[in-house]
């Protein structure tokens, strides 16, 4: 009897393993997954980009990791382009996984970043239209950025102990004020921004927690676990709770903006304009939940990303004084010291443009691209990717490893400049094409226009006005903190007015 039972169990096990490998064989080949747990043992979630760097080098531009859900990685630029641009509509989805949709959003399928189908299309179109009405990519938005940059420079000027400055909050407030003003119509004063600091701290707490959590992976791989008592908290509930705390900021600010707003009046911020379009019945998809969701997405994506990039800039340029000096000389010779830069100065500032490109390449801040999902079975380079598969177009890997970037571990803006010293290297080497921190295709970053203005003006203004260097005896540490967003470790710098 026991022998029969044992035989039955072994047969069932062998059958399940065979079925498992039949299932994994449907995806592009990658490192061999173990039955049921896939490649989890191969994966360090705290330093995901390092795992992807290590595994990507052993593969041929496209492969699958089982985490344990199948997760297709694309590391080759031409394949990313083929997928996200040539076959863009087939890769346009975001995961519908319960944990991601319910715990990490304002509401499932609301807003822009995580929504799908017609709702995504309409939210994105409407958000970009409203932003354009407020001048995104035009002079009006540039004026808001310049004004916030001006306050930041003034704040740095007023710091008494310039030998020990943590640039984190000055940069964060400068960047957050821009999107806060666009969305909600007001700004914070440096030094008086407790609600903003609480938002950022709550967000960072959640990010730290995610990178540490096996529970999250289990919840995503086996959604039934999220329904169980206690286990449900570790696999889902704690993240939903953390996200709700973060979103209190959004709810409060949307309500604040709408309190005295009459839809007959001229809108003065994004919330007003969205509400007015709702009242005009401009679009069946416009409702309160999507208003909140879109504001939540733009606020989150709109400040943490550019802030982190500029925080890296402070450390990298402090570590490379010769590059900092060369940038400053260009700024002083084109603009002088008496006014802040304009975007119109950019064409005359080749070195500054190369510095921004190299900064975004070298200090790319997302450990993985935002996950996409295939909307149907799709063939890429002879490999079939089944419908509903998660895809990571690994822009981090690309910018850190593509052989076009000679010695990619070096910070060297000159790599983007032709030998004539007058042009960027687009034509000959396609380096700029491969520098894609905002991703590519129809779902690429919706805030690229604002981000580019913030990065150019933020970087050039800082070094126009200050020399930034390490404190004596405290060398710069460029090893990042672990996590989904690649953050610098907190460290203080010395700033000197020039
Ligand atoms: C250095 C700054 C930034 C970087 C590196 C960055 C990068 C990205 C990336 C890689 C994506 C995913 C694109 C894809 O799925 O292919 C994305 C999406 C997005 N970003 Fe950015 N971003 C930045 C700044 C901003 C800013 C300033 C805003 C808003 C003002 C913003 C709003 C968004 C939104 C709404 C999406 C979702 C787009 C969609 O799903 O349709 N981002 N960003």
TrEMBL record:
UniProt xrefs under PROSITE patterns: CYTOCHROME_P450 (PS00086)
InterPro entries (UniProt xref): Cyt_P450, Cyt_P450_CS, Cyt_P450_E_grp-I, Cyt_P450_sf
Gene3D superfamilies: Cytochrome P450
Swiss-Prot/TrEMBL keywords: Heme, Iron, Metal-binding, Monooxygenase, Oxidoreductase
CDD domains hit by this protein: CYP1_2-like
Binding site for heme: 445
Domain of life: Eukaryota
Any one Gene Ontology molecular-function term assigned to this protein's record: heme binding
Membrane-crossing residue ranges in chain numbering: none
Cofactor(s) the protein needs: heme
UniProt keyword Membrane present: no
Family statement drawn from the similarity comment of this UniProt entry: Belongs to the cytochrome P450 family.
Stated name of the protein: Cytochrome P450
Species in which this protein is naturally found: Pristionchus entomophagus
